[in-house]
Write a structure and sequence with these properties.
Protein name: Terminase small subunit
Structural class: mainly alpha
Helix content: 40-55%
Largest sheet: none
Mean pLDDT: 83
Organism: Actinocorallia libanotica
Radius of gyration: 22 Å
Number of strands: 0
Low-confidence stretches: none
Pfam families: Terminase_7
Strand content: under 5%
Shape: elongated
Amino acid sequence: MGARGPVPNRESDLARPRERKGADIHPVTKGVMRPVKVPNAPSDWHPIARRLWDSLKTSGQADFYQNSDWAFAYSLCEDLSEYKKSRKRSGQMLQTIYSAFERLLVAEGDRRRVRIELQEPEEEGETASVTAINDYKAGLGLV
């Protein structure tokens, strides 16, 4: 998923939705999502790696993660932890780790490059039944 190039605008920021030409449309092969078990971070991980791991579990893109994605993220956080704890650090190693995180769509720019946008949750308002009861009470002059 490591698409390169500039970060596209959000769909809502575009003047009109993108028009797709027939040649741009690619069929999608679909599979069935499986139940996911997310392990906890080891207590000996570097605090930055633990924080990143914990944030992955509560971030919106985790809705798309399967066990293989979590295993990959775990491996990357393990590598990041070892890197952060090391006295001898390589800029190339850090860049490699960060590049691998792009494949997990960790940052908003990475998600937007592959046309995934996380939306604010809709506010929960009154249900239709509560609204109907309140309207009925108001009609009777009880409210």
